[in-house]
Amino acid sequence: MSGWPAPRRRTSLSNHHTVSASTTAPGAPEVYFDPVRQAQRRKRARRDALVGMASLLGFVAVVGFAISRTSGWPLVQETFFNGTEFLATFPGLLDAFLLNVRIFLIAEPLILLIGLLVALSRDLRSPLLLPLRVLATLYVDIFRGLPTILVIFLLGFGVPALQLQGVPNNAVFWGTTALVLSYGAYVAEVFRAGIGSVHTSQRMAARSLGLTSLQTSRYVVLPQAVRNVVPPLLNDFISLQKDTALVSVLGPIEVLRQAQIDASSTFNYTAYVGAALIFIALTIPMTRFADWVQARMRKRRTMAGTA
Amino acid sequence: MTNTLLEISGVWKAFEGHSVLRGLDLRVAPHEAVVLIGASGSGKSTLLRCVNGLETVDAGLILLDGDLDVTDFYTDMDAVRRRIGIVFQSYNLFPHMSVLDNVTLSPCKVLKRSVSDSRDQAMALLQRFGLAAKADEYPDRLSGGQAQRVAIVRALAMEPELMLFDEITSALDPLLVGEVLDTVRELKMGGLTLLMATHEMGFAREVADRVCFLDAGVVLEQGTPEEVFGSPREAKTGEFLSRMLK
Ligand SMILES: Nc1ncnc2c1ncn2[C@@H]1O[C@H](COP(=O)(O)OP(=O)(O)OP(=O)(O)O)[C@@H](O)[C@H]1O
Ligand SMILES: [Mg+2]
Prior knowledge:
The complex is a heterodimer. Chain A is mainly alpha-helical. Chain A is built from 11 helices and no strands. In chain A, 77% of the residues lie in helices and 0% in strands. Chain B is of the alpha/beta class. Chain B has one domain (6-244): 3-Layer(aba) Sandwich (Rossmann fold), CATH 3.40.50. Chain B is 38% helix and 24% strand. Chain B has helices at 44-51, 77-83, 99-109, 115-128, 144-156, 174-189, 201-207, 225-230, 235-245; strands spanning 6-15, 18-28, 33-37, 59-64, 68-69, 84-87, 162-166, 193-197, 210-215, 218-223. The site of adenosine-5'-triphosphate (ATP) has 13 residues of chain B, from helix 1.
């Protein structure tokens, strides 16, 4: 309590008005919290935190005890949560996961680029550029309708089978390309929704100031559209992180493939659990970050709404 | 021609088969302040949007300064809009830009002025309208009156020959209307040609050189504020005014 500035004058409900009127007077505090109320609030917050913690721990203890008492538990533990197996396979899994990270880091910027270009092409009005518009629409229609794994099979096994000159034969290359094409179609739609979410009055205001259609898109519509789609884009990122594992069907040793190899050689599935932990360790922070961004944007929007 | 900055003649405009403007004629002289009044739906906004080329007309002519035909299919609309400013009821500031960037955007990109020149000019304008302290704020931190004044400054930065105002005080808290009307008075004093739609009869009476009453798609009656408000010739004008002033 001693950390709070002492009030400069006595406050009570009866002279409340004089206090608020004097806030501009020299020497009056900028903000002033009643120290008693402040202490009550903090005490309540501390108590709530303690009760919450205790309740959570109790819950975990009860559920854990119940599970460990079931008859099948020792076998489950041996098969999925085997300590020695975990220590033996985990370093190799981490190593293999680097390939997932590489696929993700290469695919994501390309997806954003393709998504944005396709979204823009679909809204072109110039008759000369009609072919581009048709192509973009076809692309989105086709790739949004195909299961990602089917695209991976088609490109990863199909294209190398053609034995074309100068076309790479590499599974990682085709797997990544398939992910880019599949996610590009989704992200294009996200961008398009973002462009649509910018009110037409913004475009009208920009045009009425003499900006050309292109300048209006570049300086007024797109910056707002991109801001609006950050949360859904982050969700797609999270989804892509997981889907890098789909490339395993083509054979490259990424984390899922590695876990599969480990598991099939020992008939123990702890490696799969290890792989799962790695994915979760990456997606949980991403999810929290996406939530945080979304909450922040909602707050800004409500502030703008009341202005 | 020298005495007409804007000449509107025989303009028709229909939406979905229903004609809003029916051969409307109107002339605006340089430095004149003309106020459009009329019932809701009488076509005031439509007329202003046609003048700025935001809406195409079905028939008729809109000439700016005797040489630029706004209605001509081959006219470059961006060129028209460089010479005519418009401010809307909803301020339509760009929310992702600071006040200063809102004002400098089109001078920089459209008039190709240097960044420092546009900033100097924008700051001078903001200063003139008491907004200099807000230059670095974002639009969501402004009051409605401030936002509308920024919108006016943004349009002014293009140095238009003609300024269109479409009910620029309608979205405002009554307490904030005054500061925006002061701005308009100041512009009129500066000699800017103004064409405005409004529901504020008191303001129309005070600032207008000429008041035009729109009804059934034409200017039914026009004259000085004293004439139109004092002794309207048309029965419909009188009805409208008594409803508005009630
Ligand atoms: N884009 C549009 N599409 C269809 N109808 C429209 C459109 N714009 C205006 N209208 C119609 O045209 C008529 C005139 O509208 P306008 O907005 O010009 O009237 P106004 O005089 O400005 O009215 P208010 O005083 O309410 O602003 C209305 O009946 C309106 O519904
Ligand atoms: Mg209107």
